[in-house]
Design brief:
The protein is α+β, with helices and mostly antiparallel strands and 252 residues long. Helices cover 28% and strands 13% of the residues. It has 3 domains: 1-43, no CATH class; 48-214, 3-Layer(aba) Sandwich (Rossmann fold), CATH 3.40.50; 222-252, no CATH class. The chain has a 3-stranded antiparallel β-sheet with strand order 1-2-5. Strands 3-4 form a two-stranded antiparallel sheet.
Length: 252
């Protein structure tokens, strides 16, 4: 159990406790986690900042990162190509050729982006959806992506790559909306040198990936936090059994 609580605006201790209570109610158990410890702790991302900083320094020294001062408004105005509704807009590379990178000695104050190899195809075998192929670059499937936010918070892509490696994760099951994120993360793994070390004791660095269809409501709209009436906690408090919830979620 890994508590991905990096966002200080949305992460609270009571939310983490409720998450673990609800998962146990569903019958999901774990042998490592924030509540029970383990050999690869700490298991809350808010306590793993030094791991992410070390990775940021390594990427910066390797020339894989650059600072970006574009605002959300700038990005919205620059977005001209159609984007996948489940994915972030493709960054047009506005700050890619900045010449003042050397003056930024820490991640604070600007966004830091990973410089993707333009035109390179990233391929992987998904255990559910088969062979996947995405081309990196601003004119292709995904552009330079965030690894560190201007409010001094590591981005999701960097944090999960660092933690998956450190915690020896061998299998990742997640929603199909994160297929492109897998391509991004494979590039990060290579840049960080994880592809050259057998962290999973399996002969290669990357975990196996299984991307599943998203859970949707009766109108085929994907469930999100705003659907409180369908949250596990709400269903639980309404008297529905754990077995019924799993059945509703499509368990075979």
């Amino acid at each position: 159990m890994r508590n991905e609580d990096l966002d200080p605006q949305r992460s609270r201790a009571e939310f983490a406790r409720a998450m673990m209570e609800d998962l146990r109610w569903l019958g999901i158990c774990w042998t490592e986690g924030p509540d029970c410890g383990g050999p690869y702790g700490p298991y809350s991302q808010s306590e793993r900042r030094e791991h992410y900083l070390a990775a940021w320094r390594r990427l910066r020294q390797g020339g894989f990162l650059y600072p970006c001062i574009c605002s959300r408004k700038d990005l919205a105005q620059a977005a001209s190509a159609p984007n996948d509704a489940d994915d972030e807009p493709v960054y047009p590379g506005t700050c890619r050729e900045r010449k003042d990178v050397g003056k930024f000695v820490d991640p604070l104050g600007v966004n830091w982006r990973f410089r993707v190899p333009d035109g390179e195809a990233v391929e992987f075998a998904d255990l559910n959806l088969g062979r996947q192929r995405y081309v990196a670059g601003s004119n292709f499937d995904f552009g330079d992506f965030l690894v560190w936010r201007r409010d001094d918070v590591p981005a999701y892509q960097l944090a999960v790559v660092v933690d998956d490696a450190a915690m020896r994760i061998t299998e990742v099951v997640r929603g199909a909306d994160l297929l492109k994120s897998t391509a991004r993360q494979l590039l990060l793994m290579r840049a960080l040198g994880y592809a050259d070390c057998d962290y999973a004791d399996r002969g290669h660095a990357a975990p196996d990936y299984f991307h599943c269809e998203l859970v949707r409501d009766a109108a085929s709209v994907r469930l999100a936090k705003r659907h409180d009436a369908l949250s596990i906690r709400h269903l639980r408090e309404s008297g529905i059994t754990a077995e019924k919830v799993l059945e509703m979620a499509g368990r075979p």
